Amino acid sequence: MIKALLLLLNAAKLGKVLASGGTMIVSVFAYSLLFGWPYAVGFVVLIFVHEMGHYVAARRRGLDVGLPMFIPFVGAWITLKSMPHDAETEAYIGIWGPLAGTLGALACLFLAHAVDSRLLLALAYAGCFINLFNLIPLLPFDGGRISQVLSPKLWLVGLPILVAMFFWRPSPIL
């Protein structure tokens, strides 16, 4: 019975949508354990917006691409089934995730101020951080893919930035 259902879903191309949606639900559940449901849903939606930026950019360049897959506390990714033919295409796909994600974060910021929502403000800050973090010029981050167009030597800048991110602790507000 289960095999028949899976075959039916696969035949209807719903299997991929359910897999992507299922990983989103698992991520929402995991984040909600720490931050509550409203924040978890918003956070996963912001990650989804970021990944859909990559998805749309890859499709616009004629590449076969899979739907986003999520891993809680790691992030998400899209699978390129056909690889970019040059560094410029790779950079184009790489930049559209942070651009779309930043637009999503800015939408949260404007809504936060419009309705005086601390939740939306927190999501706006988290969304901006996610996208800035992804711009570190080091593979596998988006910034590493983008910097290939300029010079792979920029990766030498990315490594100290990444290390500093793990050791830097902001001072508490007095």
Outline the fold blueprint.
Blueprint: H1 2-11, H2 14-35, H3 37-60, E1 69-71, E2 75-77, H4 87-115, H5 118-134, H6 142-150, H7 155-167
Antiparallel strand pairs: 1-2
Q: N-to-C SSE series?
A: HHHEEHHHH
Distance between the termini: 62 Å
Largest beta-sheet characterization: 2 strands, antiparallel
Instruction: Name the average pLDDT.
Output: 85
Beta strand count: 2
β content, as a range? under 5%
Radius of gyration: 18 Å
CA-based shape: globular
The computed structural class is mainly alpha
Count of separate DSSP helical elements: 7
Oligomer: single chain
The helix content is over 70%
Point out poorly predicted stretches. Answer: none
With strands numbered from the N-terminus, the spatial order across the biggest sheet is: 1-2
Describe the structure concisely:
The chain has 174 residues and is mainly alpha-helical. It has seven helices and two strands, in the order αααββαααα. The longest helix is centred in the middle third of the chain and has 29 residues, at 87-115.
Describe the structure.
The chain is 71% helix and 3% strand. The protein is mainly alpha-helical and 174 residues long. 29% of the residues are buried. It has a two-stranded antiparallel sheet. The mean pLDDT is 85.
Protein traits:
two-stranded antiparallel sheet; 71% helix; 174 residues
